[in-house]
């Protein structure tokens, strides 16, 4: 090998040892008769010393080495006179006897340092250089550890990792499919899987009662900050289980990852129904690192001639502790915030609960001091607090207040980095009504089982049916979700009917699954976790991109390999594709 040690491991204990190291020139400094070079590899940085007096020729050669040259050195480990306690190898340096240049390098387009001077787009183009930087390297190390620990844990519970195909037929999960033309079947297309959902269910029919896969999934969605067209799931399925078994098994996995990766022992994860999450936090992925939960005050505010409240389905608010002194400007900012189209509230009402006990609101015209005092009491508000109220249609108002709550949480600094608050959200509705297309959609996906006691409602009031579905949420981020599946052909058929599929459409798209249900399908259920997101949360990162080796940019492009790109006319012809006709 071209090295006896790595650049991250030499310490005082190695003093006097002859070693060989290989790596990249991070930087070099000439100080009088000495030249210092920081040599870097994946494991760390070791200082090399060249002494003009000891070997002038070698020292002159070393001075010619540019940044990112790849070299191999032979030398002796020595104690440093000027130790650097911040570096693991900071006690020692290498007195170099000779070195070889293994490869030269152009000057990199940005500095390979923790605080680099390279902009995002430039770093994406030279991702292989960006990956030499510590932060990215650490993120991929964490990702590797998460993957290994997941495999070890699940394998110890007899889960088998089984690969499912990437060239499949479309499975509807709410997003658009990426499609691949088939040369051998002119005019026909494969779809890339949005998830291995139907395959993992077929594996249950096949009798592999515990399956998992760390797997790429593809969704052609409009990109948002936290989305990538291809991403990775920890995809899991189990047979002969209830929802309770699944929650316990995967809470076990989550706790194992907290312990092995972050050295954190977690208590039992709380559980909250979807309805409760919406009523208290205005979100199906509540951030429970702080309180400030919702209080509904319909019965206290109606009938006082304030039209906005009188006409509202819901009047609801939060109590922001210690914020009564918010300035006019701050309150205007909050009003603008809730009125943005993304939030969609029509306005914001506030009640200041002055530190001196005084009460002042933006609706003093309609409400007496007694009325306001009753509202404050309902909120449990203390002198010095500020109550913020929204009104309107129930769900929309809850969601808007949920967004305002998170914004206030940020402004009030209510979260601490390194604090993790996981929970399960359960009892999701099975279906979601869409006003535009005037039909129901599956809230999770069409294979999710209704709660058995709600099955009769499928005929009478489908919107009220609850699902055996659950999400794992950490710090307000949905880390994963799953459900108990339908395993009965008739119920699956019925579900497709409720979703507006004709019998032919259902048979055409999902005949293979419904047929399989006729050959002894066991009861089963599962879950899938967004692996990139989970790594991002554990790594304290902002974007899932930072935890992927080769991510795409905001427009879904890989700017390094320049993809997507046009293909040759001959290729199009071979694929029977006609462009622009
Ligand atoms: N296939 C589902 C998804 O990707 C997860 C599951 O139900 O297991 O969201």
Jot down its keywords.
single chain; 581 residues; alpha+beta; OB fold (Dihydrolipoamide Acetyltransferase, E2P); BirA Bifunctional Protein, domain 2; Gyrase A, domain 2; 3 domains; eight-stranded mixed β-sheet; 17 helices; 22 strands; 29% helix; 24% strand; binds aspartic acid
List the helices and strands and how they pair.
Blueprint: E1 18-31, E2 34-41, E3 44-51, H1 56-62, E4 70-79, E5 92-103, H2 120-125, H3 127-130, H4 134-156, E6 160-161, E7 179-181, E8 189-191, H5 197-205, E9 210-218, E10 230-239, H6 243-262, E11 271-273, H7 274-281, E12 295-296, H8 298-301, H9 307-310, E13 314-320, H10 328-339, E14 349-353, E15 359-361, H11 369-379, E16 386-392, H12 394-411, E17 422-426, E18 431-434, E19 439-442, H13 457-460, E20 469-474, E21 477-484, H14 489-498, H15 503-516, E22 524-530, H16 531-538, H17 569-574
Helix pairs in contact: 4-6, 4-16, 7-12, 14-15
The protein binds aspartic acid.
Aspartic acid (ASP) binds at residues 173, 195, 197, 481-483, 526-528.
Strand percentage: 15-25%
Poorly predicted regions are none
Bound chemical compounds: aspartic acid
Number of helices: 17
The assigned structural class equals alpha+beta
Number of strands: 22
In CATH, the architecture of the largest domain is 2-Layer Sandwich
- Rg to the nearest angstrom? 30 Å
Task: Give me the oligomer status.
Answer: single chain
Give the helix proportion (percent range): 25-40%
Could you tell me the mean pLDDT?
A: 95
CATH domain class name of the largest domain: Alpha Beta
What is the CATH superfamily label of the largest domain? Bira Bifunctional Protein, Domain 2
The major beta sheet can be summarized as: 8 strands, mixed
Distance separating the two termini? 58 Å
CATH topology of the largest domain: BirA Bifunctional Protein, domain 2
Global morphology? globular
Describe the strand arrangement of the main beta sheet, using strand numbers: 6-9-10-22-21-20-17-11
Instruction: Give the tally of structural domains.
Output: 3
């Amino acid at each position: 090998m071209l090295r006896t040690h790595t650049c991250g491991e030499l310490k005082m204990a190695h003093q006097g040892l002859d070693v060989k190291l290989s790596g990249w020139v991070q930087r070099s400094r000439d100080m009088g008769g000495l030249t210092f070079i920081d040599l870097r590899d994946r494991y760390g940085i070791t200082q090399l010393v060249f002494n003009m007096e000891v070997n002038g020729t070698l020292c002159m050669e070393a001075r010619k080495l540019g940044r990112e040259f790849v070299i191999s050195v032979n030398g002796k480990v020595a104690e440093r006179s000027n130790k650097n306690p911040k570096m693991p190898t900071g006690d020692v340096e290498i007195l170099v006897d000779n070195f070889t240049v293994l490869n030269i390098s152009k000057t990199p387009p940005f500095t390979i340092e923790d605080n680099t001077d390279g902009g995002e787009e430039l770093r994406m183009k030279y991702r292989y250089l960006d990956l030499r930087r510590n932060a990215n390297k650490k993120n991929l190390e964490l990702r590797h550890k998460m993957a290994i620990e997941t495999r070890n844990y699940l394998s110890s519970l007899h889960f088998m990792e089984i690969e499912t195909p990437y060239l499949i037929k479309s499975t509807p999960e709410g997003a658009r499919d990426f499609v691949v033309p088939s040369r051998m079947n002119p005019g026909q297309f494969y779809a890339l899987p949005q998830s291995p959902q139907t395959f993992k269910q077929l594996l249950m029919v096949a009798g592999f009662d515990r399956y998992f896969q760390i797997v790429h999934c593809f969704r052609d969605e409009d990109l948002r900050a936290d989305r990538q067209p291809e991403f990775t799931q920890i995809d899991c399925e189990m047979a002969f289980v209830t929802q309770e078994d699944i929650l316990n098994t995967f809470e076990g996995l989550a706790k194992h990852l907290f312990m092995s990766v972050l050295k954190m022992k977690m208590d039992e994860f709380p559980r909250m129904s979807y309805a409760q999450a919406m009523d208290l936090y205005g979100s199906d992925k509540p951030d429970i690192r702080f309180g400030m939960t919702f209080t509904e005050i319909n019965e206290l505010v109606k009938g006082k001639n304030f039209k906005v409240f009188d006409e509202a389905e819901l009047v609801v608010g939060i109590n922001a502790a210690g914020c009564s002194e918010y300035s006019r400007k701050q309150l205007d900012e909050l009003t603008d915030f809730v009125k943005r189209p993304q939030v969609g509230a029509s306005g914001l009402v506030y009640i200041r609960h002055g530190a001196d006990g005084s009460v002042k609101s933006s609706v003093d015209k309609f409400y007496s001091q007694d009325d306001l005092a009753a509202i404050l009491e309902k909120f449990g508000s203390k002198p010095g607090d500020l109550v913020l109220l929204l009104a309107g249609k129930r769900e929309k108002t809850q969601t808007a207040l949920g967004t305002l709550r998170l914004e206030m949480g940020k402004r009030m600094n209510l979260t601490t980095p390194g604090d993790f608050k996981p929970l399960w959200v359960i009892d999701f509705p099975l279906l979601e009504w869409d006003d535009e297309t005037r039909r129901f959609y599956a809230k999770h996906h069409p294979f999710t089982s209704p709660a058995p006691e709600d099955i009769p409602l499928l005929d009478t009031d489908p919107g009220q049916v609850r699902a055996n579905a659950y999400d794992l949420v950490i710090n307000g981020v949905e880390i994963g979700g799953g459900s108990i599946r339908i395993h009965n052909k008739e119920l699956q058929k019925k579900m497709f009917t409720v979703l507006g599929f004709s019998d032919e459409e259902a048979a055409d798209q999902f005949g293979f699954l419904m047929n399989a249900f006729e050959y002894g399908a066991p009861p089963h259920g599962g879950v899938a976790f967004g692996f990139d997101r989970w790594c991002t949360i554990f790594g304290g990162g902002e974007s899932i991109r930072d935890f992927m080796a080769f991510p795409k940019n905001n427009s879904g492009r890989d700017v390094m390999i320049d993809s997507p790109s046009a293909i040759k006319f001959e290729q199009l012809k071979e694929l029977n594709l006609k462009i622009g006709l």
